[in-house]
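Predict the 3D structure for this chain.
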Amino acid sequence: MKQHKAIYQAWNKYVAHSTPIPNHIDGVRDEITASWKRSKAKIDPFQTQMKFASKEVLEQKLQENTLLIQIAYPYLVEFYRHLQSNDYQIVLTDSEGCQLKRISQNSQQDQMAKEIQLFDGCLFSESSVGTNGVGVCLELQKPVMVLGSEHYLKMYHNVACYSSPIYDSTHHLIGCILITGPLDSYNPMIMGMLSAAVAGIEKEFELTSAHLLLTSTMDSFNKAILILDHNSKILHYNQVLIQLLKLKQTDLTGLYLHDLIDVNSLPSILKNAENEIENYECIINNIDNEQLELSVTVKPQSMNTTLILIESQNDVHRLANQLAGFKAVATFDDLHGNSSAIQNLKLMGKVMAKAEGPMLIFGETGAGKDIVAQAIHNESDHKDGPFVTVNCSTVQKAYLEKELWGIYDDESPSERKPGKLELAHGGTLFLVEISNMSMDVQEKLVQTLQKKSFTPQGSQYEKLLHVRIIASTSNNLYSLVEKGMFRQDLYYLLNSLHLTIPPLRERKDDIYPLLAHTLKTLCESLGIEEPKFDAESLDALIHYRWPGNTRQLESVVDCALNASNGKEITLGSLPLDVVNDYYAERNSTYFQANNRAEKNNSSLHPKAQEYSQILYAIKVHKGNVKLAAESLHMSLSTLYRKLDKYSIHPKDFIH
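Done. Predicted structure below.
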């Protein structure tokens, strides 16, 4: 009592009155004196109204400290029971001294709480109420007692406070516990009990935080994660697992593997997974007997635990396709032209894109079958899936089956190569020049299309077919069927939906738009000014027969651009076959109109002059090539070469 009296006298002299507070006061702990000095300029020691956080701020603080409250509250209730006294009550605050929860069990304590305003949201920081158990504890970040007149506010002079900070695993201050009661019930042993309680709270907070961090980290993965003990009991899992296995139960704590899946559907290699297994693809039934196409990775861990990573085969293939670049870029907007034929092709293509069955695209070499196939894919429901191409002309027949169906070894998952049917899962498989596919591969393709499933070479497990097949050919498939060179059943399977791309020579209206678009695209890619076609070069290009169709047109424009002066594309900039074809047609028309030929015509291009001279000689000698060669002073082999070059046929002049 004598000590309390000395402290009160010091408080009355230095706090209640204006006497400056020294650094040391006899009979008063230095940490209390320092707190008084910090508080004196800010706080009225006789104030009776506490400061409170607003309702909105308190709700936010309760939300932010949910984990602290959940962990600390049971400890504090148990601690309260061990106090074996009705004189005390317990307060939990956040790291800023805001009261979050209070624990008491009788009306006497409630009355005391009302008197000293121990309500949730009350602010006990030193800057709010001066020297007090919570404020000094948070300021010094250590356990403290503040007794009676050591409190800065007079209204607390009959109160004893025992406080301890709470830290997380990184020694970051997260809160404070205050034990408070009447001063005449002072019990120094409470500090020891409080330290033990705080140690328990901090340990559980560390474990719970680590578990939540693990769970949060696991949930952030796009793979399903499952950790099992040696009895296949679930130790950890993430939410992706529940979604991937399509489970109705959301809490898997305490369950076993057989509670999630039909273990009888597991391949033998996964039933006793003692060795590491990487990306093993299989079909597994969940607990509701629903088939799931999964890719499973097994990694045995220490302490007889096993880590299992599970992905949907769709996700695995989608990633593989992104890395491999299996993507269609062309759309129907890339089919340039004004002709009714091309407009009708676009219309029919968009209609067929909405169908699900296989289809066939006919067209000459270079007609743009790949563009049409990509456009159909991008217009279909498969547009978000991969677009995988297999050229049946370039893959050796002996390897085409492996290329399409893949190679598997169920006992050695690492020794496998997925086929294009698998890589195209959820998308489109484009079979280029299917007429070159061998008969045995055709037969296997028919079986796959009819069963809507397939079994990779070397595997015993079927895979469901989720692929649309589009095939193309530049040959007459029906003629090949009649000759026994193409399977009739495959022909009818593919031909139920078909498109024919008309050759460029049959749609002259599309040539100029194609020339203009191709030239513009090339110039933009090169960053150069776009030259113009002169009248003669444009006439030659429009009247050319384009045996290589749009692919040849793109090549011709590229060649002409490189050979031009940058301002104008002339006849001399065009490839030789285009120029020769142009002169042949022009002079043929001239001779037919005049029924004669001149030996020399200086108004013609040098190549046209040569053409005229050869045509004149053949006509004069009535198709006799030998006599014509002698008159032209030209070897027979040279003349034959030039006749072929200019498409002049001597037999047309024999009469």
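The longest strand covers residues 173-182.
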